[in-house]
Amino acid sequence: MSTHSKWLLPSVITLALVSLGLLWSVMDGKPDNIQKLTESEELGGDFALRNIDGKVALSDFRGKVVVVYFGFLSCPEVCPASMSVLKRSMEKLSPEHLANTQALLISIDPKRDDFQALAEFTRFYHPNIQGITGSVDEVKAVTSQYGAFFEITESETVDSAYAYRHSSRYYIVDQSGALVQSMRHSTTPNEIAARIKKIFKQAG
After folding, report:
1. Fewer CB within 10 A of the end CB, N or C, for the chain?
2. How far apart are CA 189 and CA 199, in angstroms?
3. Which CATH number goes with the domain that contains 85?
4. Which tens digits make up the pLDDT trace of 157-196?
5. What does DSSP assign to residue 36?
């Protein structure tokens, strides 16, 4: 099986489950610590991690709308489905909006997700999705900064020694670098695209 087929198959299967309403957030048992955010709240902010080409900071994308997602490449269903949602969200934007929108997949598994694999994985979905990560401590700091959550669990597959239980949300950052909303895993491509368009409209 090709690398792309390996990523595509779980994505297709999971999206079918989503359409039937059978897939829920992997964090159903955890309290939601963010819904809609206001400027008075302290979640979010700049951070710096790395990709295959070097350092990447959120501030590098100032002037763009950024969608941040925390996941890992060995994730069997939820992360590929979320990447597909991001891909279809991007496809619903006008060329002008797309040129000013960036999605970031932050790997919570830096020990296994190397920069080359992250680059190939995200490019498979859309050129406006970029994979980044850092040391374990750096990644933990960013997840805490954004109110996200992850923990190591036993893997349910024979080809992986461990997996992660993690929050699955889309963190929407406006052109100034402020975190303006956290959208649930069940959010649709139409809803993400509409939120991005609203930010552009509000900016005039």
Report:
1. C
2. 16
3. 3.40.30.10
4. 545 677 777 788 999 999 999 999 999 989 999 999 999 9
5. B
